Amino acid sequence: QVRLVESGGGSVQAGTPLRLSCTTSGWIFSMAWFRQAPGKEREGVASINKESTTMYKDSVKGRFTISWDDAEKTLTLEMTSLKPEDTAMYYCAADRRLIWPLDAWARADEYEYWGQGTQVTVSS
User: Fold this and answer.
1) Four-point Cα dihedral 85, 99, 22, 89, nearest 10
2) Alpha-carbon distance values, 39 to 42, 46, 48, 88 (Å)
3) Which of these, 50, 76, 93, 103, has the minimum number of CB atoms within 10 Å of its CB?
4) Contact 90, 34 (CB under 8 A)
5) 112 near 99, Cβ under 8 Å?
6) DSSP 105-119
């Protein structure tokens, strides 16, 4: 059984770095971070798979870094240069499959397993 548990959210000022972690159990292959702001659809932020292929939403490229520690079974999202528009509930997602084609990484329906979410609030 796959279980995902996020941690690391919080309230920060713009420009402050923040790290999100997602501890996992069970075998998974593709992992991603999604976020959902009030009144908006859930959107893909970044993804990684066990082949170390990473994908990013355009607006976070150069600011966010996704990584996977296979020994610790932990997915991490390092966020820098945070902006108020990054405010959202952030979710860890995973699936046992290779998400293909690669540009399907940002589709929420590609992932079977989800965490409960962690809130990130960025003030200006």
Assistant:
1) 30
2) 10, 21, 27, 10
3) 103
4) yes
5) no
6) TT-GGG--EE---EE
Helix (H, G, I), strand (E, B) or coil at 98: coil
Residue 87 contacts residue 71 (beta carbons within 8 Å)? no
- Residue 71 — pLDDT band, cuts 50, 70, 90? very high
Q: What is the mean pLDDT of the chain?
A: 96
Tokens of 75: 């997915």
Contact 79, 20 (CB under 8 A): yes
For residues 30 and 102, the answer to whether their CB atoms sit within 8 Å is no
Scanning the structure block, which residue is given the tokens 């990584």?
A: 67
Average pLDDT over residues 94-115: 95
Q: How far apart are CA 37 and CA 20, in angstroms?
A: 17
The pLDDT of residue 3 is 97
Q: Beta 10-13 vs 118-123: how paired, if at all? A: parallel
CA distance 42 to 33: 10
What's the confidence (pLDDT) of residue 68? 97
| Residues linked to residue 36 through DSSP beta bridges, in sequence order | 89
